[in-house]
Design a protein that fits this description.
The protein is α/β, with parallel strands linked by helices and 311 residues long. Helix content is 35%, strand content 17%. The longest helix is centred in the middle third of the chain and has 18 residues. The two termini are 26 Å apart. The chain binds S-adenosylmethionine.
């Protein structure tokens, strides 16, 4: 069975881990277990059975802070109150991330995917990348750094989205602690960040290369060309689907496929569920794990397996 990352370590970015406790101990909150799924569905985050306890705990914490003692009342208020919905989203989601998380996948992007896209891309047409479920921005900014290092910044556009508005606000601040930079060497830190006290601010010209948008995958209408969310050459949707139930994963797999340009690539994380049966992807096995592609020229190369670089 797939393991859900427990993210039990300290979370200096302020977002909850899946096993965070506290806040609601000892108090009685009616209907949480019975209504947890409906609350999660209503905020667009249908969860698998393995997360039931974590989600119920998250809901209890919100109820405690809001002095709501019955889950039915909470359910009624979702949607009508944006601040409450945002708070629930923030408690229920897991925002663990860091710069260059999954280094093998970044090597695959740098040495295999970007060169392939550049060979194929028509003169003057930008390469379009989307970090779907970007949390506090470390993933899309890592891509921006990678492109800058390789002299590609002028030919790449990077979009990033998340369901959590709090995470997106933090992403746009682009100000990080050591924990976010635990996979980042001194050279990149010195070159792309300005240190102030114990924190690191990403250089403004780099931060401005990423365009952030609020999107609920699986619920919002996608592709959304009016938001710039269509025709991507590369999508990273990593460590997002592992927290969602099978029906949501199926919907999102189809959406991601539809958001890819012909020949476009999709990477998920090793902990995420497999997607090859959920949309007509071409599937490639690489040293960095399985990656998916939308076939070029409408060919259906479904489930083909090829050896690719990335180590
Ligand atoms: C564990 S973080 C992963 C961040 C980054 N992709 C990485 O791999 O480091 C998961 C993020 O997905 C977001 N998320 C979860 N479900 C989502 C959904 N249905 N739509 C959009 N974002 C979602 C959460 O808010 C959270 O910020």
């Amino acid at each position: 069975m797939r393991q859900i990352p427990s993210d039990s370590q300290a979370r200096p970015n302020g977002r909850r881990s899946d096993n965070a406790g506290g806040g609601a101990a000892g108090a009685t909150f009616r209907g949480v277990d019975a209504f947890a799924s409906r609350v999660a569905d209503k905020i667009g985050l249908s969860f698998p059975a393995s997360r039931r306890q974590a989600v119920a705990g998250a809901i209890r914490r919100v109820m405690a802070r809001r002095h709501i003692d019955d889950a039915r009342l909470l359910l009624d208020q979702i949607g009508a109150r944006q601040d409450l919905t945002d708070e629930l989203v923030d408690e229920v989601t897991v925002g663990e991330t860091c710069f260059f998380r999954g280094p093998a996948q970044f090597r695959l992007v740098r040495h295999t995917i970007l060169p392939e896209l550049r060979r194929r891309q028509a003169e003057g047409v930008d390469i379009r990348i989307w970090s779907a479920g970007c949390a506090t921005g470390e993933e899309p900014y890592s891509l921006a750094i990678l492109c800058e290092e390789d002299g590609l910044s002028g030919e790449v556009r990077i979009a990033a989205s998340d369901i959590s508005r709090k995470a997106l606000a933090d992403a746009m601040e682009a100000d990080y602690g050591e924990w976010s930079l635990r996979n980042t060497g001194g050279y990149l830190k010195d070159r792309y960040f300005r240190r102030h006290g114990t924190r690191f601010r990403l250089r403004r010209e780099l931060a401005e290369r990423v365009r952030f948008t609020s999107v609920c995958l699986g619920t919002d209408t996608l592709p959304a060309p009016e938001k710039g969310l269509a025709d991507f050459d590369l999508i990273l949707c990593r460590n997002v689907l592992v927290y969602l139930d099978a029906a949501a994963v199926r919907r999102i797999a189809r959406q991601l496929f539809d958001c890819l340009a012909a020949g476009g690539w999709l990477t998920t994380a090793p902990a995420d569920p497999p997607l090859w049966k959920l949309a007509p992807f071409e599937t490639l096995t690489t040293a960095a794990g399985v990656v998916y592609r939308r076939p070029l020229n409408g060919q259906d190369n479904r489930n083909s397996v090829a050896a690719h670089g990335g180590s």
